[in-house]
Known about the structure:
By secondary structure, this protein is α+β, with helices and mostly antiparallel strands. About 30% of the residues lie in helices and about 40% in strands. The protein contains 4 helices and 6 strands; from the N terminus they run H-H-E-E-E-H-E-H-E-E. A 6-stranded mixed sheet has the order 1-2-3-4-6-5, sandwiched between helices. Strand 5 and strand 6 (about 120-130) form a beta hairpin. The chain binds coenzyme A. Coenzyme A binds next to strand 3, helix 3 and helix 4. Coenzyme A (COA) binds near residues 62, 64, 99 and 100.
Amino acid sequence: MGAIEREVFSDPWSANDFTECVSTGVPFLVAERRGVVAGYVVAHSAADEGEILNLGVAAAHRRHGIGRELVERALAELTARGVRTVYLEVRASNAAARRLYEALGFAEVGRRSRYYRRPVEDAVVLSAKL
Ligand SMILES: CC(C)(COP(=O)(O)OP(=O)(O)OC[C@H]1O[C@@H](n2cnc3c(N)ncnc32)[C@H](O)[C@@H]1OP(=O)(O)O)[C@@H](O)C(=O)NCCC(=O)NCCS
């Protein structure tokens, strides 16, 4: 996970961030290809609201449907936990992720100015009804 995280994000999660997620029992799905971690998604739910917290696919495994399948399965898990509305934040310039989420029914509901660091950039807030 750490290797993908550092490859994919300029401001990566630490090993401790992942450990905390596992220990709190949030939906955390890992895609494996030939014994290697190819991608992961981390979500979170509180009552009928959910959030996609993190999604990453290793560069060598992209455009094979792994990202879409991870998000679909995370949404199914959130639905099973009673979630009706899901939110997430994405860098405004992240066309690949925005296309993926829009294909899964997410739409823009807001912006958070200068939300990200390294480099500073706005977040687009996307939401979908389950
Ligand atoms: C975004 C990301 C998770 C997509 O993973 P992936 O496994 O390549 O995605 P998929 O193969 O399931 O693609 C699903 C759809 O997303 C869109 N998409 C994915 N990558 C794209 C790209 N580079 N350019 C344009 N659209 C893209 C397409 O609509 C694609 O459907 P298609 O292949 O039928 O055209 C991956 O590029 C990644 O890890 N990026 C860096 C981390 C990141 O941005 N995470 C999200 C932060 S919120």
